[in-house]
Write a structure and sequence with these properties.
Length: about 475
């Protein structure tokens, strides 16, 4: 077999040298250049079996070159290396029809493996999508190695319908990822439909998913369209899949296997065309061992597994995230603020049990409550401390035991208006005050019941699903203990 030729383009001499040596040693024929024009000339002439290229070169950008390459040499795989390690770079590389995208610094062994695979698959490459993503809004923030790995996996999902299974602790961005896969994927013009299986009463799950005919469930006469029907042509996000009842699991598995379903009470099979994305913040393998989750369904859903790292494993993303949430707060009409480097230091040390959602809540709270333009470590410490203590809003209270919540609320509000000076506090006051009470209330109930959500819900007089939802929204950490 003829030796494959690799075309390498990068304006960084060191990288060029390393790449050239690596591929030569691996037995490939190598051509190296520092500019885009030379690369294009080689390609146009029909040289090379694989391209490994940087994005930005002195005389051009390889993203701009991609349509020409796709046009002239549709079977030529291109691996893009980039130092701009954002979600959008990964998406753009994928949309441009790149075979793969590797953030710099990259792992040479890995690059070699990808190159080998690309050469082996040559000719079977999927046609590149013509559409490009609209909107400049960046859905996901963070450039840590852990997030780049996430982006790489996501970029590979944009042009196919592979089932994605997202796992991650609460608040790590599972729903955000599901939406991004839809919004930037080939189904973006179809609907995105989400169902949270922890929030649907157990005996309603099948009807919610597959719909029912008139009169079937007694309490309602009308026909109900299920989520599968609503999501037709688009994406169906099955959130908290671990909470799905067994019967519904069996039915879902059958639908996934056969590509069709019947409504409850219906007899005609309906074909379905939806992309499935599932998410779980619980360990499904443990549920399989316990016998509450079907192993065969797990394997059906786990085609592309994606684990979202907890924030404490990527504290280098905190600066970007805080800036992002501060900018969002400004969009919502709050004053512009910055965090001091000591404040960032304090944020990096905190373990973030509620992950990005908890950080987002903290930034919003700080943006809304403090008049200072620069947020220092003292404010961060107070806010983080407040989150730990049941009683939450501590710093706003005058010291001493508080026996009357109404009095406490009054003093809290008085302090809030005082802080705002001549202005009014930022809009959204009602929700802010309610949230301040909700968090300590729920934390107290959970502490009193040793983290047992069923008992805590009973204690509070809340529906269990409502409680779960609030725990998530407020980023409350559940500490299980004997009680
Ligand atoms: N990488 C990120 N960049 C910007 N915002 C993020 C990122 N990750 C999460 N967020 C934000 O954090 C919040 C929580 O994210 P999301 O709801 O997707 O988490 P989740 O994993 O679904 O949580 P849960 O398990 O509690 O449902 C959202 O407001 C989301 O926009
Ligand atoms: Mg979620």
């Amino acid at each position: 077999m003829a030796v494959s030729q690799i075309l390498i383009a990068d304006d960084d001499t060191a990288i060029r040298t390393v790449l050239s040596q690596t591929f030569s040693r691996a037995g490939y024929d190598v051509r190296v250049t520092a500019n885009a024009t030379t690369l294009w000339n080689w390609i146009a002439r029909g040289d090379g079996h694989l391209v490994v290229t940087d994005v930005v070169m002195p005389d051009g950008n390889s993203f701009d070159l991609m349509p020409k390459i796709r046009n002239a040499r549709p079977d030529l795989p291109v691996i893009i290396l980039s130092a701009q390690n954002t979600f959008m770079t990964a998406v753009k590389a994928s949309e441009a029809g790149a075979y793969d995208y590797l953030p710099k610094p990259f792992d040479l062994t890995r690059l070699l493996a990808i190159a080998e695979r690309a050469l082996a698959e040559r000719g079977e490459a999927e046609p590149a999508s013509a559409q490009s993503a609209n909107g400049e809004t960046v859905p996901m923030v963070g450039r840590s190695p852990a997030m780049q790995e996430v982006y790489r996996i996501l970029a590979r999902l944009m042009h196919n319908d592979l089932t994605l299974m997202i796992t991650g602790e609460s608040g790590t961005g599972k729903e955000l990822v599901a939406r991004a896969v839809h919004d930037f994927g080939k189904r973006r013009s179809g609907p995105f439909v989400a169902i949270n299986l922890a929030a649907v009463p157990k005996d309603m799950v099948e009807a919610e998913l597959f719909g029912h005919e008139p009169g079937v469930l007694g309490q309602t006469r009308a026909r109900l369209a299920g989520r599968f029907e609503q999501a037709e042509g688009g994406t169906l996000f099955l959130d908290e899949i671990g909470d799905m009842p067994m019967d519904a699991q069996t039915r879902l598995l059958r639908v996934l296997q056969q590509g069709e379903y019947t409504t409850l009470g219906g007899i005609t099979p309906i074909r379905t065309d939806v992309r499935i994305i599932a998410a779980a913040n619980r360990d499904l393998r443990a549920l399989i061992r316990k016998g509450t989750f079907r192993e065969d369904l797990f394997y059906r859903l786990n085609v592309v597994p994606l684990r979202l790292p907890p924030l404490r494993e990527r504290s280098e993303d905190i600066v970007d995230l805080v800036r992002h949430f501060l900018a969002k707060a400004v969009d919502d009409g709050l004053a512009a603020k910055t965090f001091s480097s000591e404040a960032y230091e304090a944020l990096r040390k905190y373990p973030w049990p509620g992950n990005v959602r908890e950080l987002e809540n903290l930034v919003r709270r700080v943006a809304a409550l403090y008049s200072q333009e620069t947020i220092g470590a003292d404010i961060v410490a107070a806010e983080l401390g407040a989150a730990d203590v049941p009683g939450g809003v501590g710093e706003f209270f005058t010291p001493g035991p508080v026996s009357n919540l109404g009095v406490a609320a009054e003093s809290y509000l008085a302090r809030l208006f005082e802080l705002a000076g001549d202005e009014l506090p930022p809009a959204g006051l009602y929700q802010r005050v309610i949230t301040e009470v909700e968090a300590p209330l729920i934390t107290a109930a959970l502490t009193a019941t040793g983290g047992n959500q069923i008992r805590a819900a009973a204690l509070l007089g809340l529906n269990r699903n409502t409680l779960r939802k609030k725990i998530r929204e407020l980023g409350i950490q559940i500490v299980r203990g004997p009680r």
